[in-house]
Q: What sequence folds into this?
């Protein structure tokens, strides 16, 4: 344990199972062994040459001494004293990985008032986090902002959640994601379908994200139907087995038949998964 305490950087390279370090390059290992062996070899040769032993005896002593020094002294000493130099390429690679950007999908609820988004943006900026995309979903207690974030590779989920909470967010959640989160529409629809397959309760937010629409509260929907107001195709209602009908609104941009079909297919997928015997705990089936 002591070498690990003295060399915290190289200790992180050791295998979690066997505790061994990665194999250094042959060139560095050879140079390290020469650096350790050469002074010892010179001293041994100087000591043996000055003796009055026969020539063959001197050769035998030098051979045995060199072999023992290589096995018991040189290589262990080189690995211990020059550990950081031996593993410098691996350490540089690990450092590059540690500082490589990571992609996260994060969600938090904010108050629907001026300055809320600016405050959380400043909080994320302290972690050198870049907001790549944002979707806003109206909810009962404000708005739910869903982000795709690019962060330094060493940022942890806990640090990201703390930044969201310090920025005024509540109910913060974060998931590692990939470049698919920024992909084209078709790929985006498949990504949302995969999310619904994992959690059917994601359906309302997934459809809202797919259609760039907002979820209409049931009270607003009832009022609109009672007044007989013509929505000119800017409202879309999809049926669900456990949520009841869900209405989406996109003022100024009527929904196309293709968009309606995609939303209904996602609702069908959510219903199939929710009523499947293999549905994971926490889905609508488990609560019904």
A:
């Amino acid at each position: 344990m002591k070498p690990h305490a003295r060399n915290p950087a190289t200790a992180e390279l050791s295998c979690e199972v066997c505790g061994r370090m990665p194999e250094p390059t042959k060139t560095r290992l050879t140079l390290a062994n020469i650096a350790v062996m050469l002074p010892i070899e010179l001293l041994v040769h100087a000591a043996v040459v000055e003796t009055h032993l026969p020539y063959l005896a001197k050769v035998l002593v030098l051979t045995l001494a060199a072999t023992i020094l290589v096995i018991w002294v040189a290589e262990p000493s080189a690995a211990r004293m020059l550990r950081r130099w031996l593993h410098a390429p691996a350490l540089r690679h690990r450092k590059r990985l540690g500082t490589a950007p990571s992609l996260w999908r994060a969600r938090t609820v904010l108050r629907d008032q001026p300055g809320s988004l600016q405050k959380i943006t400043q909080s994320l900026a302290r972690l050198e986090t870049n907001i790549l995309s944002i979707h806003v979903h109206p909810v009962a207690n404000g708005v739910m902002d869903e982000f795709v974030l690019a962060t330094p590779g060493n940022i942890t989920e806990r640090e990201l959640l703390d930044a969201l909470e310090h920025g005024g967010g509540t109910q913060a959640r974060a998931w590692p994601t990939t470049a698919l989160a920024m992909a084209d529409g078709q790929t985006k629809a498949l990504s949302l379908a995969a999310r619904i397959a994992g959690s059917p309760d994601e359906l309302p937010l997934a459809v809202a994200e797919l259609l760039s629409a907002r979820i209409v509260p049931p009270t607003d929907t009832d009022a609109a139907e009672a007044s007989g107001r013509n929505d000119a195709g800017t409202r879309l209602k999809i049926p669900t087995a456990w949520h009841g009908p869900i209405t989406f609104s996109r003022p100024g941009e009527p929904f196309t038949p293709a968009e309606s079909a995609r939303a209904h297919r996602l609702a069908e997928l959510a219903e199939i998964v929710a009523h499947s015997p293999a549905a994971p705990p926490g889905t609508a089936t488990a609560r019904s």
